[in-house]
Amino acid sequence: VSDPILIVENDERKSRLLLYLLKEKMGHEVVHVRAVVGALRELQARKFSLAIINITVQRDRDGLKLLQMLLVEHKLNRVPPLVVATEDKEPAVIKQCAQAGIADYIVYPFTEETFAPRIAKIVGKPQSLGEKIVHIAAAFLGPATRMFLEKQTKSKMNNLELDEVKDDHLPELFRWIHISCRPILKERVAELLHRLEQAFNVKRKSE
Q1: Could you tell me the pTM of the whole model?
Q2: Number of helices (H) and strands (E), helices first, in the chain?
Q3: What DSSP character marks residue 158?
Q4: For residue 107, what is the enclosing H or E element?
């Protein structure tokens, strides 16, 4: 039995659509919350196979960034893949979300035929170490995190792809993240490395 899917959505119409598609048509267990505070509480309490959020779930707040920040701040060791479901078609917003490491960006309106296959491709798929690192580092480095880390693995680690990162790569990768981020983050680089080392229980290789 797969872990449930978390929905973070405060619009009644959109919530009903997601619940109908995920529970009635696709057969998933679903937990629905209306705000990121509720999302955090649920993420602390249990594991999820997927989190579907609306990036405008709270007024004047970016739901995606806030959820990522909360996941990092509370040191959850397993971050589920994130899917954005929204009416926002702005190319800059879509690009920002993609660079932040989300699994998919789905624009309303959609039907079962367009929605179900995209969710089915993600649910049950284990999140790579590289994606988990992106989620943690994004709170410090912002929307360009993915591109930055991909450049580090390719240039410093024998052309290694970010999604190919394994456990034995982490000490060396964390060393290069520390070196490369020092000029950008200054004193905050120590906090970033602490978060990474604690999340993966791995110490960076000494410089």
Answers
A1: 0.58
A2: 9, 5
A3: T
A4: strand 104-107
